[in-house]
Specification:
2 domains, 231 residues, 5 strands, two-stranded antiparallel ribbon, TMEM177, three-stranded mixed beta sheet, elongated, Transmembrane protein 177, mainly alpha, single chain
């Protein structure tokens, strides 16, 4: 076992810069990959399929979305495509300034009927929702947004897409990886661990990895809150 471990360690030491750059690029690309080409991926994940068929976007929801775009003054050159989603809140992906454009999933619940009158049961905590019961009625009322609330929810997604916040949200992972690597290498040099046993360096690398993950979690959460406040 020592042979392969030493070979892997030597390979990482020789190619660590290339491996770091490749890993950072891979992390960034993985998190932003579906935004340049959102149409097939996002619709495949979130499309509303009642009775085994994809639900087309109703004229009412189409008018609602166009009203939002007009109220916000979105240029006609920005490409948007809307579809009906099974979720209870809008979803979005893409960059409207790129040729592939952006997609916005509008919940079928915005129409009210598709949720409460669907043949497909709604299961919460393992129990089927009875829309005729008092608890079911309260849930239905909570899920039924006013027209202004629906427009606000869609406008929030449009602002998110127009600001290209997806690119910012993809930055913490590669930044934390690069920072963890740089600080880890510097600390090992300062502590003289490169001249010590491999087990000690492995333990230090494990501690550094945990610290890097904690930094990633905090930075992601902080960025999310900052974007929420900014948008």
């Amino acid at each position: 076992m020592a042979g392969p471990l030493w070979w892997a360690s030597a390979f990482v030491q020789r190619q660590r810069t290339g491996l770091l750059v490749g890993s950072c690029a891979g992390l960034f690309g993985a998190q932003i990959s579906y935004h340049p080409f959102p149409d097939p991926v996002v619709q495949w994940l979130y499309q509303y399929w009642p009775q085994g068929q994809p639900a087309p976007l109703s004229p009412e929801l189409q008018r609602l979305f166009q009203e939002v775009l007009q109220d916000m003054g979105i240029p006609s050159g920005h490409c948007y495509e809307a579809f009906t989603t099974f979720t209870f809140q809008p979803v979005s992906a893409g960059f409207p300034r790129l040729p592939a454009g952006a997609v916005v999933g509008i919940p079928a619940s915005f129409l009210g009927g598709p949720v409460t009158h669907s043949d497909q049961p709604v299961i919460i905590h393992g129990h089927r929702v009875n829309w005729q019961s008092p608890a079911g009625a309260r849930l239905r009322d909570a899920l039924t947004l006013s027209r202004d609330a629906q427009k606000f929810a869609l406008a929030r997604e449009v602002v998110y897409l127009e600001s290209a916040a997806a690119a910012l949200q993809a930055l913490p992972a590669p930044a934390c990886l690069a920072g963890t690597w740089a600080l880890g290498v510097g600390a090992k040099h300062a502590l003289g661990l490169y001249g010590g046993p491999m087990n000690l360096r492995a333990a230090f690398n494990l501690v550094a990895a945990v610290a890097g993950f904690v930094a990633y979690a905090f930075s992601t959460d902080s960025l999310t809150h900052a974007l929420e406040a900014w948008l």
